[in-house]
Amino acid sequence: MLYVASSNRYTAKAGNHHGVAVFSIDRATGCLSQFGVPFTLTNRPLNIPLDGTGRYLLVAYNAPSDLTVRPLAPAGTIGEAVQQREHVDAGIYAHQVRVAPDNRTVVLPTRGNDATASKPEDPGALKVFGLQHGQLTDEESVAPRNGYGFGPRHVDFHPSKPWMYVSMERENLLQMFDLNGGRLATEPRFVKTTLEKPHDTHPQQIVGPIHMSRDGRFVYLANRADSTVDFDGRKVFGGGENSIAVFRIDAATGEPTLILTVATERFHPRTFSIHPDGRMLVAAAVEPLEVRDGDSVQHVPAYTTVRVFPRSSSFPSMSAVAAGCARSTSDRRTRFSTSTCSRPALAGRRRSPTSSSLPALRFSNGSRIQARTDSVRAGRSIARKKQASRCMNKTFKETCFEEDCSCGRGRM
User: Fold this and answer.
1) pLDDT digits (tens, 9 = 90+) for 256-311
2) Domain total in the chain
3) Which range of residues forms the domain containing residue 305?
4) Could you list the mean pLDDT of each consecutive 10-residue stretch along the chain, which spans 412 residues?
5) Within 10 A of 190 (CB to CB), how many other CB atoms are there?
6) Are 31 and 1 in contact (CB under 8 A)?
7) How far apart are CA 288 and CA 236, in angstroms?
8) Residue 141 lies in a domain
9) CA nearest to 222, candidates 200, 241, 248
10) DSSP 96-121
């Protein structure tokens, strides 16, 4: 089964639509079929992992911040939220929820918000819970400096050591915390910049998702930038780093060391995922922008890029963009935005390895993802990654983004 969360807005205002749909997966083709009726929610779901047993679906919401646990029937259908016996403090602007490898610990990163001209900063925190039979217990809040200047977005765990790695969205940092017996250290043990040029930052330079390699040797993290400046009466890209940062992890101490940043060559890589076999990374750069080119301005659309890990390599390397959206258009239909489409979050019934043991990245020659900008919504494009990756195991020249594709018939 595949669980897909969708929302058309950032908030829980009346008239908005939020929900979770269930799809069955054809094991032979990877194509999806809707299973039952989508479950309606009252708030925007940001992230929906399963627990290690596959019996519970956890849902994190951002505005207002919240966390719920829903049981799954043996057939895969979603039940009503478990009534929690203890109060759940979901902080300010939750952005992910993860179940630790012990399957007894839940971590909810709550990002907080930067100060604006009209309001002070909202503090961030890491909310840690015990998990037993759907109940969230013994909540602990970790917030160095009372959460000010502390903006965790996503976390990931070492597969065998008690180490948790955190992408700090508002600070452009990677932090490592010790997590022992369900208790999170009150301060990070290591703090590292994610940027190639940390002393040359631009407005709206932030960090995105994080993934750890299957063997615990590397951490991958997205850097995002989409600020603009005025040029000849138009808004053009103002600079910053859009890249995947690669960290090597010290096996004895857990210390991360930045060894490589790979440019996405498009703007604001909001999300990326890694194929279960660990050899393909797919990143979605969601912001179309105008770019100055001498005295002229070029339009750069939102893109999906595909990068392939070599089977063996002694040193990280990369080359140019291999895949992207099919048509460059001047209108806003290529924009990956909640103003026009849903942004699903995905949860699979089985847990799969999320990264490769190899840090080197390169592009596959001839690989290309085709997407119809006039009808394919960003959320649907993301939902297709699982099927597309199956197709690309067969051929790098065709994917299941259209009807009658090589993987089988049908649209998702």
Assistant:
1) 999 999 999 899 999 999 887 888 899 999 999 999 999 999 999 998 888 887 76
2) 1
3) 194-412
4) 88 80 94 91 93 96 95 94 97 97 97 95 98 97 97 97 97 97 96 95 94 94 96 95 97 97 93 87 94 95 85 39 28 26 41 34 31 30 39 31 31 29
5) 19
6) no
7) 10
8) no
9) 241
10) --EE-TTSSEEEEEE--B---SSSPP
Residues in the chain: 412
Residue 270 lies inside a defined structural domain of this protein: yes
**Tokens 């995947």 found at:** 244
**Contact indicator for 205, 198 with CB cutoff of 8 Å:** no
Q: Distance of CA 161 to CAs 38, 187, 252, 255, 358, Å?
A: 38, 18, 10, 12, 19
Within 8 A by CB and 6+ apart from 77, the residues are: 22, 35, 36
Distance CA 165, CA 285 (A): 23
Q: How far apart are CA 194 and CA 190, in angstroms?
A: 13
Rg (CA), the chain: 21
Within a domain: residue 168? no
CB atoms within 10 A of CB 319: 12
The burial of 234, by beta-carbon neighbours within 10 Å (0-12 exposed, 13-18 middle, 19 or more buried), is given as exposed
Q: Which token pair is 84?
A: 């929690």
Q: Give the closest residue to 125 by CA, choosing from 102, 98, 145.
A: 145
- Tokens representing residue 247 in the block: 């960290």
Of the candidates 65, 75, 92, the residue with the CA atom closest to the CA atom of residue 1 = 75
In a domain, 349, yes or no: yes
DSSP for 333-365 reads GG---TTTS---EEEESS----S-S----BPPT
Amino acid at position 101, single letter: P
Q: What are phi and psi of 222, to 5 degrees?
A: -100, 130
The pTM assigned to this predicted structure is 0.78
Task: Indicate if the alpha-carbon torsion angle 164, 167, 168, 174 is positive or negative.
Answer: positive
Which H or E run includes 394? Answer: helix 385-394
3 token code pair? 């669980």
